[in-house]
Design a protein that fits this description.
The chain has 436 residues and is α/β, with parallel strands linked by helices. The chain has three domains: 110 residues, Rossmann fold, CATH 3.40.50.12160; 227 residues, tm_1862 like domain (pyruvate-formate lyase- activating enzyme, Alpha-Beta Horseshoe); 63 residues, Beta Barrel (OB fold (Dihydrolipoamide Acetyltransferase, E2P)). The protein is built from 14 helices and 18 strands. Helix 9 runs parallel beside helix 10. The protein binds iron/sulfur cluster.
């Protein structure tokens, strides 16, 4: 039986797509391998939304092509990099065996098995659904991609070009997949899309995330349902009501605001009413834990804009802030703006914002010291007659918000929830003591 290995780069949406592909290939009698040296076929599912993501994708392609020189495995590239570069892919990587973009991901099996797919025609889109999904990790937590594409026109972003217009997936199809995942032991479901709060507008004519969440919250076994990538201007009162109503919807939301100064928000072509929206969320859900993303060094950004941002962050609305230096890319409209900010200044401002936010984070955790919560254990490693625990609280999204760490005298089971008391911070990790 031939062996296939898939490398998924970039965002959780790419992880979900790679898992759909794994499911399809397993169903086509290929053995799944995570060892390139023994694989007959390799797929690199790429990301290219900013420069560093492109460089990482290109680095992985070169690395796999080096393995090809030794083992002769077939190499295919998929996703956002081919979507961006199109036929230039073969100029840059003449030794690959083929490529598909985002909207043609579903054609990858045909390309691999029949080698007769015209991969130059690359409509944007994504693999939004599949009857087969093979989870790539064994932790009881996974992502559910509820829509593809994006209808916004943020001036710094090329994702609408790479992924096409917004396409919601039907509530029935999503709840069927969620039930199957819960039956397979998934306890945490993380909802992702380019913009999760726009869900349903295209297929139901109204924002329908509240309806979807209500259905998901009733699925047995789902202990945590988490919302990422909320878009400020599509947060409805109904949505916030659903957060209040269902205990298994995490009192947590990721809502990228990118900046707060109206000068910068209008140049980014983003909602100007962000402060009011954040205040509305906090009024309705005072204890909700918020995460956001901020860009520093956007063209035209002044010290005054940065000070305004720091003053806003110091109001303590957010527990977590991911800060990114502006990435000037020629495909994005913002590259044509005047007053480009020097990279070194963008970096200084990133560090300034990160340091500001770390103090806010510490103060927030200080306030919950001594609190006992249900924590999800993800790892339990025994060493020196102690058990080293890694896990998360409802207020921590995987991979981005740090972890809970602890040592215990007896082993804890990964995938189970245990009561533990918050003790202190260690960087962005939080030390806790389990009641064992
Ligand atoms: S909402 Fe997000 S994905 Fe859509 S254009 Fe803006 S930054 Fe890009």
């Amino acid at each position: 039986m031939q062996k296939i290995a898939i490398i998924a780069l970039g965002c959780p949406k790419n992880t979900v797509e790679a898992e759909y592909l794994l499911g399809v290939f397993k169903n086509k009698y290929l053995a799944i391998s995570d060892n390139l040296n023994e694989a007959d076929i390799a797929v690199i599912h790429t990301c290219s939304f900013i420069k560093i993501a492109r460089e990482e994708s290109e680095k992985y392609i070169r690395r796999v092509l080096d393995v090809k020189k030794k083992t002769g495995l077939r190499v295919y590239v998929s996703g956002c990099l081919p979507q961006l570069l199109k036929e230039k892919m073969l100029v840059l990587f003449p030794d690959i065996d083929g490529f598909v973009g985002t909207g043609t991901l579903k054609n990858l099996p045909e390309l691999i098995f029949n080698k007769n797919f015209n991969s130059f025609l690359l409509p944007p889109g994504g693999l939004n659904n599949s009857n087969y999904r093979l989870l790539s990790s064994n932790i009881p937590s996974t992502y559910l991609k509820i829509a593809e594409g994006c209808g916004h026109k943020c001036s710094f972003c090329i994702i609408p070009t790479l992924r096409g217009r917004y396409e919601s997936r039907a509530i029935k199809s999503l709840t069927d997949e969620a039930k199957a995942l819960a039956n397979n032991g998934i306890k945490e479901l993380i909802l992702v899309a380019q913009d999760t709060t726009n869900y349903g507008k295209d297929i139901y004519g109204v924002f329908a995330l509240d309806k979807l969440l209500t259905k998901l919250a009733k699925i047995n076994g789902l202990k945590w349902i988490r919302l990422l990538y909320a878009y400020p201007s599509s947060i409805t009162d109904k949505l916030l009501e659903v957060f209040k109503e269902y205990k298994n919807i995490c009192n947590y939301m990721d809502i990228p605001i990118q900046h707060i100064s109206k000068n910068i928000l209008s140049a980014m072509r983003r909602p100007l009413s962000t402060v009011a929206i954040i205040e509305k969320i906090k009024n309705k859900l005072p204890d909700i834990v918020l995460r956001t993303s901020i860009i520093t060094g956007f063209p035209g950004e002044t010290k005054k804009d940065v000070n305004e941002l720091i003053a806003f962050l110091n109001q303590g609305y957010f527990q977590y802030v991911g800060v990114f230096e502006y990435s000037n890319q020629k495909e994005a409209d913002s590259s044509k703006l005047n007053q480009q900010v020097k990279a070194v200044v963008a970096k200084e401002r990133r560090i300034l914002i990160e340091n500001t936010q770390y103090e806010i984070f510490k103060a927030k955790i200080d306030k919950i010291k001594g609190t006992t919560l249900d924590l999800l254990v993800e790892k339990c490693l025994s060493k020196d007659s102690k058990y080293h625990i890694k896990g998360r609280g409802y207020f921590q999204s995987p991979e981005i918000d740090g972890s809970i760490t602890s040592t215990t005298n007896s082993p804890l089971i990964a995938g189970k929830f245990y009561k533990a008391t918050i003790k202190c911070v260690r960087g962005y990790n939080i030390e806790a003591s389990f009641l064992d």
